[in-house]
Specification:
mainly alpha
Length: 273
């Protein structure tokens, strides 16, 4: 035990965890830079065009197949918001402000962040498991043996697809939250809550509310796909390693989403967005 009364093994454990985290962040930064380089080449170099078919397949798998899950979850988020916010507003006769609160909360934060959390389990785990299985079965080595770059053909389509579809799904999610709140206001809470619901929401919302939510969605999409690809490509230990990579992807993605949301919120607050 040191002079401060902290056991040495705790200090060593904390140091090891910090080094491990820095190593993962560094690995993902390198992976992101390589991906950005391939995207740049695909845009400006005729010989390195996008794998359009692969990108389309990933967009369908990540986005189209998850529309139902995202919509269902976000509708219930709208229901919860309406039921939770009405009782505190009733003593002040402000039940009609439910739509204003749902609009701002949904479009600025809950739409993108809940969508990203759903995708971390729906798409992130799938990407990590797929790439991990390819590593275990030595398909990655086979691609490298025939001069096919795994980053270009495996990572780039997945990151771009997750980035784009997270933004598009967030647009759907925003309106599903609003619809959930409207249905609850109309059927449960009484006329004071739903009369003029859409008019008040439209008056409350600004373009910056919508844009800041989409910016966060894009950041979340990149984080989810980047973590999934990084964990999938570094799998070791066979099937057990694939399972570990899948679990880590979901956990790390959710943590990264929350931290990124906090950072984005502070930035928006500093610039009064």
């Amino acid at each position: 035990m040191d002079r401060a009364g902290i056991p040495i093994y705790l200090v060593r454990w904390a140091g090891a965890q910090v080094l491990t985290a820095l190593g993962r962040i560094g690995g993902m930064a390198i992976l992101l830079s390589v991906t950005a380089r391939w995207v740049y080449k695909a845009i400006f170099t005729p010989k390195a065009r996008f794998d359009v078919e692969g990108l389309t397949v990933q967009m369908v798998r990540v986005g189209v197949k998850s529309v139902g899950v995202v919509a269902l979850v976000q509708i219930f988020i709208g229901v919860i918001l309406a039921l939770q916010m009405t009782p505190p507003l009733e003593p002040f006769g402000q039940e009609g402000m439910v739509s204003n609160i749902i609009g701002v909360a949904g479009f600025r934060m809950l739409g993108p962040i809940i969508t990203a959390v759903v995708l971390s389990g729906f798409a992130g785990a799938s990407i990590a498991a797929e790439l991990g299985t390819m590593v275990v079965s030595e398909e990655i080595e086979a691609m490298e043996a025939i001069a096919l770059n795994p980053i270009r053909y495996l990572v780039v389509p997945r990151i771009l697809a997750t980035f784009v579809m997270t933004i598009l799904l967030t647009i759907v999610a925003d309106w599903m939250i609003a619809v959930g709140g409207w249905v609850t206001s109309r059927l449960v809470l009484g006329p004071e809550s739903y009369v003029g619901y859409w008019v008040r929401m439209r008056e409350q919302l600004r373009y910056r509310d919508f844009v800041t939510g989409l910016i966060q969605a894009g950041v979340f999409g990149i984080l989810i796909s980047l973590i999934a690809c990084h964990e999938g490509l570094k799998v070791t230990g066979g099937a057990e390693g694939v399972g570990r990579a899948t679990t880590k992807t979901v956990v790390y993605s959710i943590v990264a989403i929350v931290i990124a949301a906090c950072i984005c919120t502070m930035i928006f607050y500093a610039f009064e967005l």
